[in-house]
Amino acid sequence: MKQIGQLDVTDNKRLVLSIGEFRGVERVDLRQYVKVKDGDEFIPTPKG
Questions:
Q1: Which pTM value belongs to this model?
Q2: 13-22 and 42-44: which strand pairing?
Q3: What residue ranges do the domains of the chain occupy?
């Protein structure tokens, strides 16, 4: 996945805009990432 940009919404949440492929077709993906409690790592929330 190619990351286009990111926006820190709060200290613990971030929006990430990226481009990926699904079944051979490029798609734009906007995902919310949350910060892990005991670290500096951000993980994506499940798609819904």
A1: 0.77
A2: unpaired
A3: 2-44
